[in-house]
Amino acid sequence: MREMTNGKMSKATGANTNIEKQTDTSPADMNEAYRRGCKLLHEKCKAIQRSNERLVFRLHKVRKMTKTRMRDVELLKARLDSHHDDWRTAPDPTDIKEEGEE
């Protein structure tokens, strides 16, 4: 096949033949591909949402544990103070070296 460009005859390029060889996809196939893509995207969104819900649940649980711990520490401090324990001036056990250590 020859084409005329600028008044000269030339051979058809490979790009032109590729365009002619392409098969058109039917609209039904394109709709089905679109549906599959949407379904996959929807599944990924649901998986991310489930993961986020688990993280939020864990965050609430940790906050509750932290609040409970702080309340327990305050109760213990008050109880020790009510017994006139000298716990505030006691040395830190991590600072005390045992006899074998140097």
Automatic annotation (TrEMBL):
Positions of region (Disordered): 1-30, 81-102
PANTHER family membership: TCF3 FUSION PARTNER (PTHR35084:SF1)
INO80 complex subunit F domain ranges (all copies): 34-80
InterPro entries tied to this protein: INO80F, TFPT
Domain of life of the organism encoding this protein: Eukaryota
Organism: Anopheles darlingi (Mosquito)
Locations listed in the record: Nucleus
Any GO BP: apoptotic signaling pathway
Keywords: Nucleus
GO molecular function, one term: DNA binding
Gene Ontology cellular component terms for the protein in this record: Ino80 complex
Short name of any one Pfam family annotated for the protein: INO80F
Protein name as catalogued: INO80 complex subunit F domain-containing protein
Main location: nucleus
Polar residues biased stretches: 13-28
